[in-house]
Design a protein that fits this description.
247 residues; alpha+beta; six-stranded mixed barrel; 5 helices; globular; binds 2-acetamido-2-deoxy-beta-D-glucopyranose; EC 3.2.1.4; cellulase activity; GH45_Enzymes; polysaccharide degradation
Length: 247
Amino acid sequence: MHLPLTILTLIGLASAQGSQGTGKTTRYWDCCKPSCAWPGKSTASTPVLTCDRNDNPLNDRGSTRSGCDSGGSAFMCSNQSPWAVNETVAYGWAAVNIAGSNEASWCCSCYELTFTSGPVSGKKMIVQATNTGGDLGNNHFDIAMPGGGVGIFNACTQQYGAPPDGWGERYGGVGSKDACASFPEKLKAGCNWRFDWFMGADNPNVSFRQVACPAAITAKTQCVRQRDVIDQTPTGPSTVPTWTPSP
Ligand SMILES: *[C@@H]1O[C@H](CO)[C@@H](O)[C@H](O)[C@H]1NC(C)=O
Ligand SMILES: *[C@@H]1O[C@H](CO)[C@@H](O)[C@H](O)[C@H]1NC(C)=O
């Protein structure tokens, strides 16, 4: 088969842009060591940073067992909570499943999500894939947000003394911003984010495209992929303050 050069060029450009498409979101915060925190999950030289029970970085190069496994003591660091960059952009992390791809391809990749339904329609969020999940469908971003529900696994009881099924419902988490007030101090801002910037959106749909990670995101996970389908050099400043609406 002979394809015209222009079509071949377009195919080349499409793959050079990484994955893109439309998908769905859910939310979770299970306090577990995320899957991309194990060594060798991707081309990144360092796996996703995890923390001990007291939220101190482990710097163990991924060797500590997850707090979700019996006897494990590695947990998700509280600073891998979403934050608002400005009124229309937020940064954060997610458990990911991309259709036709695999964990080695998405671990520590970043995706720009544009919300396409619900109150956040039109807002964007850049997430780094730190996790995956057997219960995720195709093109599914399970966005990490404290109080979003523990889902299948729960290390929040061990790490923070959360109720047996985590805070709120096991799937979906707490139902209002009031509940965030009684959260552990380090998780409050991420819990509030859901009801402020994210406007309490309930699993909005998205369109997505793979992008180089903002350096402000990789600074917190220390996980940076080698160049692959896209240039993975982190972009922008390594710290980006939290935007708060003017009163
Ligand atoms: C919000 O932040 C993003 C990322 O830095 C930037 O590209 C965009 O222009 C900003 N938007 C506004 C309205 O400030
Ligand atoms: C989200 O996308 C799914 C699949 O395309 C669709 O069935 C559903 O109606 C969408 N939800 C909203 C709220 O647009």
